[in-house]
Amino acid sequence: MSGTEHTIAGEHRGEHYSQVLARLSRNAAVRRYLEIGVAFGDIFSGIACRHGVAVDPEFQLKTNVAANKAKVSLFQVMSDVFFEHLNLRRDIGGRLDLAFLDGMHLFEFLLRDFFNTEAICRKDSIIVMHDCLPVAAPMADRDPMQANARGKGTPYENWWTGDVWKIIPILTRYRPDLQVMLVDAPPTGLVIVTGLDPSSRILKRSYQSIVEEFSRLPNTTEEIARLYADHPIVPTEEALRRLGGRSYAHGGGWLRRLTG
Ligand SMILES: C[S@@+](CC[C@H](N)C(=O)[O-])C[C@H]1O[C@@H](n2cnc3c(N)ncnc32)[C@H](O)[C@@H]1O
Q1: Which domain of life, per UniProt (predicted)?
Q2: In angstroms, rounded to a whole number, what is the distance separating the alpha carbons of residues 88 and 73?
Q3: Separation of CA 61 and ligand 1 centre (Å)
Q4: Which residues lie below 8 Å from residue 255, measured CB to CB, with a gap of 6+?
Q5: Strand arrangement of the beta sheet that strand 121-130 belongs to
């Protein structure tokens, strides 16, 4: 599928994001997984890893988040508080292999979650971000009540992505060294970032000016459509193929025991 075929009115046609993440965790044999914004635990419970770390100021867990894991840590705080107090060795045991960022749906929050997460990754870790490929403009409203009102009577009623799509032009401008893949996972896409540089301080140092600059970028159909026009949209199967073959497990015995 080409980027231009996929207009803002089109829906993502790949595998559901929950499946993509579950498969990714198995393909990459993940030891340490971080999820920011966990809610009911639907995604978290499908992840196979040795140690799962969940951050949410208000857990509403309805699933077995311990499934497929040897160890689970829950931090019921906002992500900024989590990172401020984090002791990597004590709390996680080492650098992350895979992270899923799905907390507050405002671009400045995701920007902070991204640079704070990258700092505790390795070069070959994977960061996945949710909701950055809205399929209609109302769901991207910064105000969830407004998004609901504007989406009423459409197929996307009650969908709220906020304006986290702006992370894509931000990374394109400020971090051309990263590999950023826009993935066709329903309902609102996944953005998968690899080739990380945990020592990079560019985003953190430029945070205030980035927020000022990108607050001025209109949150409109035209700008979101430009995103689709400017970047190829990668089918989910192709994304998994490109990310395949990583193994973070030493020996992998623990994974076979947990998932076999
Ligand atoms: C869309 S839900 C997450 C859904 C979950 N990842 C899934 O796909 O099943 C967003 C979650 O982010 C949490 N959240 C909101 N602000 C946050 C923040 N500042 N830090 C971390 N989590 C936050 C909310 O409490 C909510 O549970």
Answers
A1: Bacteria
A2: 13
A3: 12
A4: 29, 48, 50, 249
A5: 69-75, 49-55, 32-36, 96-101, 121-130, 190-194, 179-183, 233-234
User: Per the domain annotation, does 8 fall within a domain?
Assistant: no
Task: Please give the number of the atom of ligand 1 that sits closest to the Cα of 60.
Answer: 27
Instruction: List, for residues 35-71, the tens digit of each pLDDT value.
Output: 999 999 999 999 999 999 999 999 999 999 999 999 9
Lining ligand 1 with CB less than 6 A are: 36-40, 42-43, 55-58, 78-79, 102-104, 109
- Asked if residue 145 belongs to a domain, the reply is yes
- Counting the structural domains of the chain, the total is 1
Residue 1 placed within a domain? no
Give distance in angstroms: CA of 257 to centre of ligand 1: 30
Its domain, for residue 136, covers 17-259
